[in-house]
Amino acid sequence: MARPPEHDAELLFGVISIAADAIVMIDEAQRIMLFNRSAEQAFGYAASEVLGRPLDLLLSPRFVEIHRQHVSNFGAGPATSKFMGERQCKIFGRRKDGTEFPAEATISRWKRSSEMIFTVVVRDITERERDRTTIHQLAYYDTLTGFPNRTLFRDLIRQAIVVGREAPKPLAVLLLDLDQFKEINDTLGHHRGDLLLRQVARRLKEVLRPTDAVARLGGDEFGLLLPLAAPEDATLVAQKVQHALEAPFEIEGLPINVETGIGIAIFPSHAGDPDNLLQKADVALYAAKKEGSGHAIYAPHLDPHNPRRLSLLGELRDAIRAGQLILHFQPKLHLLSGRIVGAEALVRWQHPSLGLIPPGEFISPAEQTGLIRPLTLFVLQEAARHCQRWRQAGHRITVAVNLSVRNLQDPQLPACVEGILKDAGVAPDWLELEITESGIMANVQMAIDVTAGLSRLGVGLAIDDFGIGHSSLGILKKLPVRCLKIDRSFVKEMLTSEDDASIVRSTIDLAHSLGLTVVAEGVETQEVLRKLVATGCDEAQGYYICRPMPAAAMLPWLDQASQAPPRAT
Ligand code: C2E
Ligand code: CA
Ligand code: CA
Question: Which protein residues touch ligand 1 with a CB less than 6 Å away?
Answer without folding.
Answer: 330, 345-347, 358-360, 363, 376, 379, 402-404, 434, 464-465, 488, 521-524, 542-543, 548
